[in-house]
Amino acid sequence: MTQRKTPEELRSHRWYGSNDMRQFGHHSRTAQMGYSRADYLGKPIIAIINTWSDINACHSHFRQRAEEVKRGVLQAGGFPLEMPAIALAEVFQKPTTMLYRNLLAMETEELLRSYPVDGAVLMGGCDKTTPALLMGAISMNLPAIFMPAGPMLRGHWRDQTLGSGSDVWKYWAEKRAGNITDKQWLEIEDGIARSPGHCMTMGTASTMTSAAEALGFTLPGAASIPAADSRHGRMAAETGRRIVEMVWEDLKPRDFLTSKSVDNAITTVLALGGSTNAVVHLVAVARRAGVALALDRFDALSRNTPLIANIRPAGKYLMEDFFYAGGLRALLSEIDDLLDLDARTVNGRTLGENVAGAEVFNRDVILERDKALVGSGSLAVLRGNLAPDGAVIKPAAAEERLLKHTGPAVVFSDYNDMAARIDDPTLDVTPDSVLVLQNAGPLGAPGMPEWGQLPIPKKILAQGVRDMLRISDARMSGTSYGACVLHVAPESFVGGPLAFVRDGDLIELDVEKRSLQLKVDDADLARRRASWKKPAPRFERGYGALYQQHITQADQGCDFDFLEGTAPTAEPEIH
Ligand code: FES
Questions:
Q1: Number of C-beta neighbours around residue 328 at 10 A
Q2: Could you tell me if the CB of 127 is within 6 A of ligand 1?
């Protein structure tokens, strides 16, 4: 261990290091909690930011894991303090946890700023918790390590394995088509989520915890361990031991988070067939570290990165299988020539050192590159008069015939309009139609919910069709699939061109040319723009009012404008 800091140089020393009247309060109240001075004085104080809550099923093991982290902190000579933070329970929080990602990021930054903290263990995993915790910790820039929740075990139904999200969409479509009974649907409900942990498909959770590992924020291999595996508890204790060393070494997020590590994270997401949500989150994470990340970087890296994780929704298996096949270290060793192996990580070693010697144990789960599910271009960034600031599509998740397609628009003005009319037998729709959803973006929805996988109209499903071209300013769950153009920027609510699409307008998508065009002439579009009325703001008070004043568009990461960048967070006066 390289000890660069002395106990007197610890940040917490400002709270505890003298004997004046205020510090009497800090000492006496720590004594009130049952600790004597010898327990904490001169030791790194480690905040364990725990996103446990009764409402977050993905983090149901986090009370025990926090104890295991504390054990590690104590063993290494630190002093742990658990601090709860908002849980962002993906399935339950309405309209979407994305509305609150920046709230957790702010909470993380402010907890670390305002308390006597020298370093932090960030406990998250359920979708938005990972980017939020990283964003807050990067801005505060104290030593911090991420402890991923780990995926849940495979789901089961009869002789089938079930994957979170992906199999819900799949069997729901079959139920709507009349191929699944109510009884069978209840059986699926019973078996799909059977252990602690986050969604075990390559949804946003697995995508972002893997991205956090590739960024250098976790111990090697941490993101792939299933939550229920005893190795997960041991990793928690090891994480606790490591953060104490990081404090003495003064190893902070912005010491290892560079444009190279951001590229490593993007390449990892692409090789995994990860969620499109990673685009928004990684832009926001990178900007917190002062790394300017444009959408086109995703497109450029996508052209060289093979998708080699055979995991649903793009592939066949689940995260438990991925772990047994060697996990993320094994996958990264397969694409090591595409990574910057010199990038540093929280354990003080480089990414290259951390993946060295990793082996693939199952070649059907982690594929050889010449057998990749998609050789290149698993994610594409589109531009055109319908999305001047960009939009994204996951071509690998779409039916091939729709990747170059022109069809007439069927427009829904918002989610409720869509829900009310999508299955209307009189809806003027054919398999060639392009379903357009407006007002589903960061401000319009609000919160840019995962509505981008618009349901296929019942009467089209009945014709045996399972995919159609769909366009919106919403996001899509990482567990979803289909020809869905997402994150259209600027969004319709602020007068982006998506607002001016009308029923019957022809829309042309050409993924190979990365083009998305509304085939309406400029003069007509200008007339529509002139007659467009700006909708009323969604919120009159509270957090929502702050959100709508400061949220940026999807291509900029949907952060709050005042939280971006690397301006130093002011240290509190200690009185
Ligand atoms: Fe928590 Fe999917 S619901 S990760």
A1: 30
A2: yes
**pLDDT tens digits along 18-54:** 888 888 999 999 999 999 999 999 999 999 999 999 9
Residue pLDDT, tens place only, 259-296: 999 999 999 999 999 999 999 999 999 999 999 999 99
> Is the model's pLDDT at 437 over the cut of 70?
yes
As to burial, measured by CB atoms within 10 angstroms (0-12 exposed, 13-18 middle, 19+ buried), residue 254 is middle
Distance 448 CA to ligand 1 centre (A): 17
pLDDT (tens digit, 9 = 90+) per residue, 77-120? Answer: 999 999 999 999 999 999 999 999 999 999 999 999 999 999 99
User: Looking at 327-473, which runs of residues are DSSP E strands?
Assistant: 380-384, 387-393, 404-412, 434-437, 469-472
* CA-closest residue to ligand 1 atom 2: 199
Concatenating the DSSP letter of every residue in 168-234 gives: HHHHHHHHHTT-S-HHHHHHHHHHS--SSSB--SSSHHHHHHHHHHHHT-S-TTGGGS-TTSHHHHH
| Atom 1 (ligand 1) nearest CA | 126
Nearest CA to ligand 1 atom 3: 90
The response to whether residue 555 sits with its C-beta less than 6 Å from ligand 1 reads no
Which of 372, 253, 267 shows the shortest CA–CA distance to 310? 372
Residues 500, 528: contact at Cβ < 8 Å?
yes
- Residue 1, pLDDT above cutoff 60: no
| Spatial distance between the Cα atoms of 246 and 349, rounded to a whole number of angstroms | 12
**CB of 193 sitting under 6 A from ligand 1:** no
